Amino acid sequence: MIKVTAYREASAFDELRDDWIDLLTRSHTNTIFSTWEWHKYWWEAYHPGDLWILALRANDDRLVGIASMFIEHNETEGRNVRFVGCEDVTDYLDFVIDRDCMEPVYTAIAEYLAENDEHYDQLMLCNIPEVSPTLEQFNHILQDQSFTTTINQQDVCPVIELPDKFEDYVSALDKRERHEVRRKMRRAEGQRKMGALDWYIVDESHDIDEEVEKFLKLMAASHPEKAEFLTDQQHVIFFKSLVPATLERGWLQLAFLVANDTPISAYLNFDYNDHILVYNSGLDPEGYGHLSPGIVLLAYCIEHAIELGREVFDFLRGDEQYKYRMGGKDTAVKQIIAQVQK
Question: Is there a domain that residue 318 lies in?
Fold first, then answer.
C-alpha cells in the first residue's frame, strides 16, 4: 500500500527536506533539477500558481515518491498541472521515485490525480528525459485510469559521452572543428604562458556574491535576449539563491576566462552525479574576439571534466550550432499532456 499526502503550502519543502534528499539517491531521476534545493528556490522565486506536492510513503512510512507539482491558471488553456520548475529555467523534470517502487508509486499518483480531477483541466508535464520510464510506464498507467494522453517532443539536449583522455575527445571531432579547437587552444596557451590569460573555477575562497555579479554582467552582455531575460527580477532572484546553495553542496562549477585581469567569458555549469551540465554562459563581445573566449573556456571545461573522470558533458536544452561543433549528440526531452475522460 502507498499512502499519498498532498501539500499545498510552501512549508512542505522544509518539512520534506531530509526525506527528499535521501529519496533522490534511490531515485531513477537523480539530476540536479530534481533536488530539494532546485525545487525550493524555484518556487520561492516564481510561485506561478497553486502548489500541489504529493508525498508518497510505503507502509513503514519511508518516502518512496514525490510528485512536485503546481496548478497553473491559464486564461486560454484552463487549469494545468505542471511540474515545479516547468519549464524555461529547468532542463529536466520528472517524478522522484524509489527505483524499487516504480509501478506502485506511478499507480498511486495516477489514481490520486484521477480521483481529484475537479481541481484541474489537464496535465502538462514538461521536459521529461527520453530515457525516463515515466514516458512509457506512467503514460500507460494514466491510460488505465481513463486519461487520454499525448506525448510530444519539446526540445533536444546535445551531450558528449566523455572518453578517458582529452586528446581522444579532440580526435573524435570533425576534421575542421578538430583543427579549430587545437588552433584556438594553442593560441590561448601562448597567452597563458605570457600571463595575459588565465581561467579559474569559483570555490569557497571566492566571494560568491561578487562572482555571481560578474557572471550576470557577462551573461547580459553576451546577447540581447539574455539581457532581456535578466530584466525579470524573478530570474535574478532564482540565480542569486541557487548559485550559493549549489556551491555549498559541491555542485557548482562557475568558470571564468580572464584576460589581463578582466573576465571575458564564463560558464555556469553544474557538476552532479558524474555529469557536467552546461546551464548558462556569458561573454564580453568587445575587444577579445580574436581569442575565441567562449570556445576556449568551453574546451578547458571539457578537458577538466575528463580529468575529473566525469561520464557526460551535457549542453542541456537547445540546438545551438556550437554544441554540435564541439561534439554534442542529440537526446530528447518530451512532454506528456493528459486529460481525464469524463
Answer: no
Number of domains observed in the structure of the chain: 2
Q: Is residue 317 part of a domain?
A: no
C-alpha cell at 3: 499512502
**Tens-digit pLDDT string for the chain (342 aa):** 899 999 999 999 999 999 999 999 999 899 999 999 999 999 999 999 999 999 999 999 999 999 999 999 998 989 999 999 998 999 999 999 999 999 999 999 999 999 999 999 999 999 999 999 999 999 999 999 999 999 999 999 999 999 999 999 999 999 999 999 999 999 999 999 999 999 999 999 999 999 999 999 999 999 999 999 999 999 999 999 999 999 999 999 999 999 999 999 999 999 999 999 999 999 998 878 889 999 999 999 999 999 999 999 999 999 999 999 999 999 999 999 999 987
One domain, residues 41 and 140:
yes
Q: Are residues 179 and 140 in the same domain?
A: no
- Beta strands 50-57 and 3-7, pairing class: antiparallel
User: Tell me, what CATH number does 47's domain have?
Assistant: 3.40.630.30
The count of other CB atoms within 10 Å of the CB of residue 90 is: 23
Q: Which long-range contacts (CB under 8 A, 24 or more apart) does 14-18 make?
A: 14/40, 16/53, 16/55, 16/63, 16/66
**CA–CA dist 237, 41 (Å, integer):** 9
pTM value is 0.96
Same structural domain for residues 138 and 207? no
Q: Are residues 134 and 177 in the same domain?
A: no
* Nearest one of 294, 253, 248 to 271, comparing CA atoms: 253
* Residue 280, SS3 per DSSP: strand
| Interatomic CA distance for residues 134 and 93, integer angstroms | 10
Per the structure, the complete domain to which residue 235 belongs is given by 163-310
DSSP characters over 239-275: HHHHHHHHHHTT-EEEEEEEETTEEEEEEEEEEETTE
